[in-house]
Task: inverse folding
């Protein structure tokens, strides 16, 4: 009498096959390439922004230094020879000559244009001599 063997159902294999792992790795690599390129671009851009922020902070520091002076000291600069124009540089308040020179321009104003009279209002401009960014504000005698 032949014995019949009981057939047991095969159990499904657990885990991942080599091909499945390989496909998953390819998908991850394909997704990471653009992300890494974007990250590299961001790092390059951040160094340029750091330079701009540093230059801006330098202009702000110079502006604060000028605005800390009494009104009469600044107003006296506008009466010097060649002063009180929209392009007259105050040698006493500007940085010494050099590659990264911050210049200060002062002139009396009535709020909109250059004024030859003492209006009690000065326009103060701090800029890079080589050009680029500049800061401008008004300083009043009375407040």
Result:
């Amino acid at each position: 009498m032949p014995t019949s063997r009981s057939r047991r159902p095969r159990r499904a294999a657990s885990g991942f096959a080599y091909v499945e792992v390989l496909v998953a790795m390819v998908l991850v690599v394909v997704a990471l390439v653009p992300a890494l390129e974007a990250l590299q671009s961001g790092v390059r851009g951040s160094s340029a922004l750091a330079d701009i922020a540093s230059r801006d902070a330098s202009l702000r520091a110079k502006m604060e230094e000028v605005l800390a002076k009494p009104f009469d000291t600044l107003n006296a600069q506008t009466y010097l020879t060649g002063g009180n124009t929209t392009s007259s540089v105050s040698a006493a308040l500007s940085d010494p000559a050099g590659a990264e020179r911050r210049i200060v321009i002062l002139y009396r104003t009535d709020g909109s244009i250059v004024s030859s009279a003492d209006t009690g209002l000065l326009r103060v401009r701090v800029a890079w001599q080589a050009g680029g960014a500049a800061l401008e504000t008004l300083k009043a005698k009375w407040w």
Observations:
- The chain has a mean pLDDT of 87.
- The chain has two helices and three strands.
- The radius of gyration is 35 Å.
- Residues 18-140 form one domain.
